[in-house]
User: Fold these one by one.
Assistant:
Number 1:
Amino acid sequence: MRRDPLAYLTVELSTLKEQGLYRKLRILEDEQKPKTTFDHRAVVNLSSNNYLGLTTHPRLRERALEATRKYGVGTGSVRTIAGTMDIHMELERRLAEFKKTEAVVVFQSGFAANAGTVSAVLGKDDVVVSDELNHASIIDGCRLSRAAIKVFPHKDVGAARKILQTLPAAQRKLLITDGVFSMDGDLGPLPALCDLAEEFGCIMMVDDAHASGVFGQNGRGTIDHFAAHGRVDIQVGTLSKAIGVLGGYVAGSRALIEFLYHRARPFLFSTSHPPAVAAACIAALDVLLEEPHIVDRLWENTRFFQSGLKTLGFNTGASEGPITPVIVGDGALAMKLSDRLFEAGVFAQGIASPTVAVGKARVRTIVTATHTRDELQFALDAFGHVGRELGIIH
Ligand SMILES: Cc1ncc(COP(=O)(O)O)c(C=O)c1O
């Protein structure tokens, strides 16, 4: 009988089970909403990135249906062959206007946007200077580029400067940070990093995946929040989180975007978005511009929920926005807290190593604009009760 060459995977899975870190996928049986059904249980949902509730917004739904009727369900090609529809170009024009940049190119996901862009703009003789907590898609993009990777401690601008001082002036350098860090909810120190980029002649890049639709005027992101327009050469945003649909984009100069058309591998070698995706994203931009009270509501809910968790005595880290970690340290304890909350009717995902550092395991919560006060209070009561039961708070 043939020996299973993948047997080692089963061994690794058993190890995860022994460590209490094995995760089963939770199955959503309804719409992505603040109160919904996962695994046959009605729960208050604190685990989605659906910040503004746009996954189910009637304007997006309607535009997606209209586009499907008009264009069909798929594009049948990559963008660079036959898969660029007028609706893709309209979305890119609208995003560029929104982001106040010359041009935008849309990718299939935020992951593809980061990985495809970093690997396209850099090569083996170049160097990336990167925050240690930058997203996995940035890290993969850096690896794919074969550039040297220099990592600075989280938000430590002084350490980034020391690294830059050691590099030859003529070497091409990319300084890169998340706008909002996805596991902690804190902001990258953009103004200080832009100063450094200008002083040392770096390309400045910001991944604003969790900031788009959340920070800045009408949700324009952290570049707008920090009034740093014109100081960031490459802005990445996502259409999968607050925008409620799917995709990622790069905003910058016309030359950058045209270069990516020619060199970004996910753009060149992977089929373009279905027309319904592009149409729904355009509708989402209309909502951001015409219904700004939704963003205000997100911030009201964030303040209410975060101060509730703090009053209960939880460690919520350094969050500055709707992503609020409840840091417990031990991986197995984070998973237990998440499981017990789920039984109590609250879905908040446990997150452990390797997604976060060992000893920094947590349950990550994200409130949305569409949570009601009652739902958030219900979740706080559950956190209080389960947190005391597990000895995390007293
Ligand atoms: C900071 C950050 N960048 C990029 C991405 C990737 O975005 P997408 O889900 O659109 O691929 C994510 C999502 O997980 C993220 O948190």
Number 2:
Amino acid sequence: MAYMARHGLKRARPSELVPGTLSVVTARLDYLPRNTPEGWQDRELQRLQNPGEAVVSVYARGRDYHKVLRSRLQTLAERIALAVGPLGHRVFTDSAPVLEAELATRSGQGWRGKHTLVLSREGGSMFFLGEIYLDLALPPTPAVSEHCGACSACISACPTQAILGPQRLDARRCISYLTIEHTGPIPLELRPLMGNRIYGCDDCQLVCPWNKFAQRSPLPDFDEREGLSGSTLAELFAWSEAEFLRRTEGSPIRRIGHERWLRNIAVALGNALRQAAAPDQSALRLALLSRAQHPSELVRQHVAWALDLSPD
Ligand code: B12
Ligand code: SF4
Ligand code: SF4
């Protein structure tokens, strides 16, 4: 995530990033799929207890939110321009030089939870953030008060103890970082803690009491794609590169590429093999052996670790 350091104070000062900016409109886009049942948190926590199941973070099971949110923000900006006359604007979502959580908090979208994400009483935290920078002075909306109180469920639930204290995250330990952003080998001491999480992680949000108020998205974009929930690790490990690219077209998962996809699943297969409760150990072993000669050294190393063959 070196890109974060490169932009310096542009991140904290919107008008240095987009000259002329006088106001920032912040937006939240809920992403729970339309058909999410009651008690979804328990169902998701249950998946983590099935060692052979592949768990992809909820936000990544549908269409890439960057595209969805950016185009909706662009439409909103154009509508504002229709109402008030021509104006300069630029839209952002998940763009590195924007401190999105901080802007959202200061403009009343919610407060920073102890896990560092923004959450609200009406919507929990299962939403994305986006912004429109405008060269129009608007009256600011006030921040809302914090409602974590004495709760620290997210801190206790984090599998890698990445949340060092309230609003303090060691990104290097976060499974979301390790499975999505990190390019090299996954540190050995963290592999066993990743369980069957192969892309992103939701644990700190699953245990948050405010997520009983998380809203379903009205949009079909976030409907779960086939294969991205309920599949076995062995099934997803068998995807060829061509199948990976086909299945992840328009999905945020695509940007990690097939090599990291296999790396992540190899770790999860190794974790499953180490659990006595895992069904069908020989199928897990066979799946790993099928990639033991993979051309990528990164994949081979993680497969060897999973099969307990490596000297590491
Ligand atoms: C880098 C990043 C990550 C990293 C680090 C996360 C983190 N908490 O910092 C990793 C890869 C670990 C990550 C993981 C996830 N992420 Co992320 N991530 C980002 C990203 C790109 C930047 C966040 C950032 O700048 N962090 C750096 C720290 C230093 O900044 P900060 O804590 O926000 O702010 C502090 C300082 O900046 C300082 N500060 C604030 N204002 C000012 C002003 C001045 C002048 C100064 C000096 C300092 C200062 O105080 C702040 C509080 O300590 C944002 C998008 C964006 N552009 O904002 C998404 C974002 C935060 N991620 C998001 C999501 C959804 C996730 C995951 C849930 C994905 C998943 N399911 O796997 C996980 C959750 C992990 C977690 N508990 O945070 C959403 C969060 C939505 C929400 N409801 O809040 C965002 C906003 C993307 C989006 N557009 O929707 N993420
Ligand atoms: S996303 Fe997972 S690993 Fe990262 S802080 Fe939350 S619980 Fe911990
Ligand atoms: S789990 Fe508890 S401490 Fe963590 S964000 Fe939710 S309310 Fe706050």
